[in-house]
């Protein structure tokens, strides 16, 4: 038997990687110093896995930005605009791909959501001239390094089929034409890894989705080629984030020596796999959930292990995490301020490694009765805690009436009165909500948290930030203003902190992309809103200006998706509870005189199940929860929503069903590609496709912005077009945000002039 995790979080328990990256980008540390931080983190994480007693340690899972970008570097699949650098150890080219090159004005590669998670990967670009060759031996070097330190490594590669499926084709390129070259490089890498290790893990999460036909047809031959390169080293085909369903045969006939299945998000597949797995194939059971932070139910996991043993014996079994632990925080023992009872319900990456080992020990016949009893008691304490079940919340959800899902009038009617009221120009300009979270804002919040300043001082500081934000926007000439969100640490955590039913970690950071991390709140019980959460700040901003200030809220689906959610209640029901809480806030904002309210549903698309068959069920309850949130307002109130990284094509009709008056969407990195969706489906509302890529430090030019707007105008009627950045500006500095917004306003003004003279 073997025990292992599919990957370990790389950010570091104190976000050491984030700090080092930011210092390196600023020029405060050298490349050598950055590499040393990486080495230290790798060593630390290998040590954790070994000290837990796992039989294998993952190598190649560390990355300075993203594992897909590392694969791009390994294959030399570097787009021409970054020069002919081979990416091997060349961190400069590597970071240009991730973040753009400010000096040469080269845009970054696109970034999008990793399956249905809040992790983001860099999207491979396939062009006809792309030449694939082994360009980086990082994984081989890392594996040798682990061996030199006495570890038993299991290198982790992103599989070629998933890599190809996740990329995008440009200039008429056909991705599958690259398969042979890519397979050749993978063979070269596997051949070099084979003498170093017993197992090589190849991740093909794409097998848990509806696979394109061509991918199915090339899967088995590709893997047979890879297996031939592996020689006596064993290949573990890792699947996760769902069930294999109709792709099971591909996995079983791949020639791989082992198959890993996700039993957290794909428990239903176990019987089918057990019924069909060949006698020679190892089975890695992903029992310990890699996407949530609840303790594993060890007793029921042991029952499962025993039932598996009865069917296929124990010699070919591996006990594992369901997926990489990238999606959970590093170490619970650092949570010194968490309520002890709640803490006892949780397990982070380090603790999950321990759980795997306990399962192994008990299964192997060792006595771990104390740990089993503690685990049982912890689960009971969660179930029986009075905060978990709250009668008044359950009753409110039970008494929901269907008329609570409808605005008073249909869209066409409710706009008329509002137009007179809001007096917005053609192509109204706005931003998405947040302004730069400057060092001063973050450190003042920290001082408040540590009790070094009192609430009056903190509130005065936030008000001065809001005043400055309003002044800046008036000076820029924006039409619809925002208060800038200086009071928010994060758009989900901030709301979670004010809602009953949530709890928080102090240090539970999870990587979202590159250097950016989130601290997802934990939903432990029924959710309700004890008091207004944003009204004070929005009304303060509105009191400073005659222009409309948008109320800014995070929507229920996004709060759900970006939290660790209790697993004893359907997600749809938890979402309804959150929707009711946010509905109360919407109505309070309206009562306080706010005429435009934006409800961010940045994670709406992310929550979409990976299989088409499961889409409609999710979309129905997710759309209804959004409608429940906003439908109480009068016709005069304009409802906005905002979404990031949206590949909408198949769900535009559902987005229209949300019945928001205006939607703003990320689109600049993908060069307005999302508009394809609107060509076929005439979206009956107003739209602000993003024209400024806020994830890059680059300042977009007026011409660039106008080009994007003109592309948008091919599809969106002028009276429906809003002008805004892709997303909030919290990750930018003012030195980048101000000139970018100036260019955005100039582009809007020029377009207005062109349109009024073209269309008198
Ligand atoms: C919009 N996006 C978001 C996603 N998910 C979220 N939960 N939130 C989002 O906004 N997903 C999709 C996109 C892109 N993803 C992200 C994710 C994260 C960020 C981001 O900016 N993260 C910040 C951390 C934010 C935060 O919680 N900050 C806290 C703590 C600040 C801190 O680190 N304090 C230091 C000391 C500071 C000092 O003295 O200078 C400390 O405590 O030691 C806060 O502000 O209070 C990040 O930097 O990673 C953006 C997009
Ligand atoms: N209002 C939020 C949305 C981010 S998705 C912001 O501007 O940061
Ligand atoms: Zn956004």
From TrEMBL:
Which residues are recorded as binding Zn(2+)?
642, 644, 666, 727
Q: For 5-methyltetrahydropteroyltri-L-glutamate, which residues are the binding ones?
A: 15-18, 113, 118, 516-517, 562, 606
Superkingdom of origin = Bacteria
The active site consists of 695 (proton donor)
How is the cofactor bound, in the record's words? Answer: Binds 1 zinc ion per subunit. Binds 2 Zn(2+) ions per subunit.
| HAMAP family the UniProt entry points to | Meth_synth
Q: What is this protein called?
A: 5-methyltetrahydropteroyltriglutamate--homocysteine methyltransferase
Gene from which the chain derives: metE
């Amino acid at each position: 038997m073997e025990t292992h995790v599919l990957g370990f979080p790389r950010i570091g328990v104190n976000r050491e990687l984030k700090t080092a990256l930011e210092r390196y980008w600023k020029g405060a540390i050298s490349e050598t110093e950055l590499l040393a931080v990486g080495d230290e983190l790798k060593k630390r994480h290998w040590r954790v896995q070994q000290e837990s007693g796992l039989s294998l340690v993952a190598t190649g899972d560390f990355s300075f930005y993203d594992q897909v970008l590392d694969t791009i570097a390994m294959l030399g699949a570097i787009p021409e605009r970054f020069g002919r650098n081979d990416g091997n150890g060349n961190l400069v080219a590597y970071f240009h791909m991730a973040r753009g090159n400010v000096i040469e004005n080269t845009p970054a590669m696109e970034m999008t959501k990793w399956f249905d998670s809040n992790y983001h990967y860099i999207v491979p670009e396939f062009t006809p001239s792309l030449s694939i060759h082994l360009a980086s031996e990082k994984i081989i070097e890392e594996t040798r390094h682990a061996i030199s330190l006495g570890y038993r490594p299991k290198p982790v590669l992103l599989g070629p089929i998933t890599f190809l499926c996740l990329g995008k084709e440009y200039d008429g390129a056909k991705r599958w034409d690259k398969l042979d070259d890519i397979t050749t490089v993978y063979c070269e890498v596997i051949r070099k890894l084979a003498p170093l290790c017993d197992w090589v893990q190849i991740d093909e999460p794409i097998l848990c989705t509806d696979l394109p036909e061509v991918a199915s047809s090339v899967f088995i031959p590709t893997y047979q080629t890879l297996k031939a390169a592996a020689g006596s080293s064993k290949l573990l085909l890792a699947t996760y984030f769902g069930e294999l369903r109709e792709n099971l045969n591909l996995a079983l006939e791949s020639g791989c020596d082992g198959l890993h299945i996700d039993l957290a998000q794909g428990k239903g597949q176990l019987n089918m796999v057990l019924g069909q797995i060949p006698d020679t194939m190892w089975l890695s059971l992903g029992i310990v959930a890699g996407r949530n932070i609840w303790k594993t139910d060890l007793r029921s996991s042991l029952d499962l292990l025993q039932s598996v043993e009865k069917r296929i014996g124990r010699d070919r079994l591996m006990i594992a995490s369901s997926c990489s632990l990238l999606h959970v925080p590093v170490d619970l023992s650092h949570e010194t301020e968490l309520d002890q009872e709640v803490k006892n319900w949780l397990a982070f990456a380090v603790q999950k490694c321990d759980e795997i080992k306990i399962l192994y020990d008990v299964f192997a016949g060792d006595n771990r009765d104390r740990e089993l009893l503690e685990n049982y008691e912890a689960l009971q304490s969660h179930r029986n805690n009075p905060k978990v079940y709250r009668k008044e919340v359950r009753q409110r959800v039970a008494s929901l009436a269907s008329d609570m899902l409808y605005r008073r009038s249909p869209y066409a009617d409710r706009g008329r009165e509002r137009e007179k009221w809001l007096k917005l120009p053609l192509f109204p300009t706005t931003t998405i909500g947040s302004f730069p979270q400057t060092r001063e804002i973050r450190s003042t919040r920290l001082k408040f948290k540590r009790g070094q300043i009192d609430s009056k001082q903190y509130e005065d500081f936030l008000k001065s930030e809001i005043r400055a934000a309003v002044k800046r926007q008036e000076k820029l000439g924006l039409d619809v203003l925002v208060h800038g969100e200086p009071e928010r640490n994060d758009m989900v955590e901030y709301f979670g902190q004010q809602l009953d039913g949530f709890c928080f970690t102090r240090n539970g950071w999870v990587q979202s992309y590159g250097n950016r991390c989130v601290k997802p709140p934990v939903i432990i019980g029924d959710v309700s809103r004890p008091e207004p959460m944003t009204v004070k700040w929005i009304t303060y901003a509105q009191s400073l200006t005659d222009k409309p200030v948008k109320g800014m809220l995070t929507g229920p689906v996004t709060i759900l998706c970006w939290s660790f959610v209790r697993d004893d209640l359907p997600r749809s029901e938890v979402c309804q509870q959150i929707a009711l809480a946010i509905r109360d806030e919407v109505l309070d904002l309206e009562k306080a005189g706010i005429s435009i309210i934006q409800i961010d549903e940045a994670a709406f698309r992310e929550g979409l199940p990976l299989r088409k068959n499961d889409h409609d069920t999710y979309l129905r309850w997710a759309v209804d929860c959004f409608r429940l949130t906003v439908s109480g307002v009068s016709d005069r109130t304009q409802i906005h929503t905002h979404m990031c990284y949206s590949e909408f094509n198949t769900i535009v009709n559902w987005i229209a069903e949300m019945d928001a008056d205006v939607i703003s969407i990320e689109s600049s990195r993908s060069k307005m590609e999302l508009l394809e969706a609107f060509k076929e489906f005439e979206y009956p509302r107003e739209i602000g496709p993003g024209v400024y890529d806020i994830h890059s430090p680059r300042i977009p030019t007026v011409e660039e912005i106008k080009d994007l707007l003109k592309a948008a105008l091919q599809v969106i009627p002028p009276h429906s077009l809003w002008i805004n950045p892709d997303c909030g500006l919290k990750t930018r500095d003012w030195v980048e945000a101000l000139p970018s917004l100036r260019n955005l306003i100039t582009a809007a003004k020029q377009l207005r002039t062109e349109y009024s003279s073209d269309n008198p």
